[in-house]
Amino acid sequence: MADSNKSGFSERAPQPPLYAQVRNTLVRRLVEGVWAEGEMLPSEFELAADMGVSQGTVRKALDSLAADNLVVRRQGRGTFVAEHDEARILFQFFKLVGDSGEASFPESRVVSARSCTATAEDVKAMSLPQGTEVFRIHRVRSIGGRPVIAERIVIPAALFPGFADTEAPNNLYGLYARRYGVTVARAHERLKAVALPEGEALLLEAKVGTPALLVDRIAYGLDGSVIEWRVSHCLTDDLHYSSDLK
Amino acid sequence: MADSNKSGFSERAPQPPLYAQVRNTLVRRLVEGVWAEGEMLPSEFELAADMGVSQGTVRKALDSLAADNLVVRRQGRGTFVAEHDEARILFQFFKLVGDSGEASFPESRVVSARSCTATAEDVKAMSLPQGTEVFRIHRVRSIGGRPVIAERIVIPAALFPGFADTEAPNNLYGLYARRYGVTVARAHERLKAVALPEGEALLLEAKVGTPALLVDRIAYGLDGSVIEWRVSHCLTDDLHYSSDLK
DNA sequence: GAGTGGTCTAGACCACAGA
DNA sequence: CTGTGGTCTAGACCACTCT
Hints:
Chains A, B: It holds the Pfam family UTRA. Chain A is an alpha+beta fold. Chain A has two domains: 18-81, Arc Repressor Mutant, subunit A, CATH 1.10.10; 96-241, 3-Layer(aba) Sandwich (Chorismate lyase). Chain A is built from seven helices and ten strands. Chain A has helices at 18-32, 44-51, 55-67, 86-93, 120-126, 172-180, 198-204; strands spanning 71-74, 78-81, 96-98, 107-117, 133-143, 146-156, 184-195, 211-221, 226-234, 239-245. In chain A, the strands form three sheets. Chain A has a six-stranded antiparallel β-sheet. The longest helix of chain A has 15 residues, at 18-32. Chain A is globular, with a radius of gyration of 21 Å. Chain A starts with 17 loop residues before the first helix and ends with a strand. The A-B interface holds A 68-69, 92-93, 95, 185-195, 211-214, 216, 234, 236, 239-246 and B 68-69, 92-93, 95, 185-195, 211-214, 216, 234, 236, 239-246. β10 (239-245) of chain A pairs antiparallel with β7 of chain B, so a sheet runs across the interface. Chain A binds a DNA duplex through residues 14, 17-19, 43-45, 53-57, 59-60, 62, 73-79.
């Protein structure tokens, strides 16, 4: 964050504003795991002194991190690394809610989980190098005892060493974060209406061809790398996907 | 924006921060149409002097308005009232994009448009008083000549006097804003996969029962009032609904 | 009471747009 | 050249939390 654009004559690359550089520095430290999940960051003044900028500039950087849900600020307490608890995941990444209004985290049952080589499809969807090792998980999620979501999940094995030996929990993103230091920061979903294919029909105890909501999600890490590919088929009789536009 | 919490003894209602009050004042002026769409607002210093606060406080309010797409800030030019042109609507409120990636605004054909009394369904969905007059528009939207979206739109007649005589354009929200001073600020959508009903099947030249994406949207104005209810059935063979989570 | 983030102010300088 | 928003700083005071 020291000096910068002095030079002698014309220079290109006007460089990003200070607060953006501070933000990037902080993101880098978050990625490196300098602070654990839920841990308090140094105060604004400490960070400012540390990086040789004013407290106001650090504040702007922290505000932007808070806006992206990477940290949580609590007045009178401090600034904390965001936690991937169920409540947060539910709010941030789980957009299927009951028609009556209330959201409920569905229970999960793993159908299969195995390690294998990425298919051509995986490579394309996740922008992986050919021949990458991946884990592939199939599971069924139920709400109120009724199976309504069939998920097919693919994750790069390199990011999750020994994942096969793990008992997959309900909240996968929490596991990614706590056990592997891999933080899902954002995701992109593509939705379609499709006829339920045979495999999913079996899992969901529904008829082949039933209209189902297909949710195709790519999840990205703090540094923008692809962490997970997840394709879900959902029966939306008593559910809907909730989306806010503004 | 003057004095406030002096009192003599204990008072409740800690009142919102100054910048929020400034924001509200500005929103109110926007609703009242003090500045036309696309018009430049007074400079930060003028507004600050006007309201008796510092320029930094006005800035924070304007930044928040810009974050909500209510104004557009252009360095060296000024701050302008957001325009509801096709590009903005496309980006902000139209989430259906071609599978190949490119978004394209579909052409529209109005099937019917008539004035009538709100049904029980309308009343419930839009929180209207019983017996409210509404306009009901049905239209079909096509991409590349192929009909893919059947829309059923309901708007309160009170907000749109003489709407029936109007030729409904492709970009309805632009018309709402320009002709009636009604600005759609945000919307909430509920998505489901359903079997295509008979009426929509006819309009979309598809078989009854084909899986279709049902999009149920409520659009809200600057002041939070309900402006429109729109239910769309979409054929998602070559389209998908794009959603960003973070 | 001490330490934290939240608000508000004031002023300096920069980058950009337009006359 | 002037006026605009964008960045950065510095300091004051408030509200909240915990000890």
